[in-house]
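Why does residue order matter? Because the sequence determines the fold. Keep that principle in mind as you read this record.
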Amino acid sequence: MGGPVRTCVGCRKRELAVKLLRVVAVSAGNGEYAVIVDPASSLPGRGAWLHPEPQCTQQAIRRRAFTKALRIDRPPDTTAVIEHLEFLSALDSPGNRTGSEEHEHTVKSR
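Structure:
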């Protein structure tokens, strides 16, 4: 029932792969790399796994874990990963209501 287990490059804790984000490095040219999120886990190349938590991303950046895990020679641009996590947290925030809850409340209060 479990499935594959991977290690988060940020906190180094093991977790089921379905609970982690896969990230890969893509060449930005001139020896530079950018780390992008691979939600379908289908992009080619070496991947690294990360909890979808900002603190794990910050730990990975601070420890240069992306550089080591993705086997690249200089720290990559991690902007895409940070923006993806901000987007996910905006979706989960309590202030982001779909409207159906407000409508339900309005209907009940009449």
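Confidence is low (pLDDT under 50) at residues 99-110.
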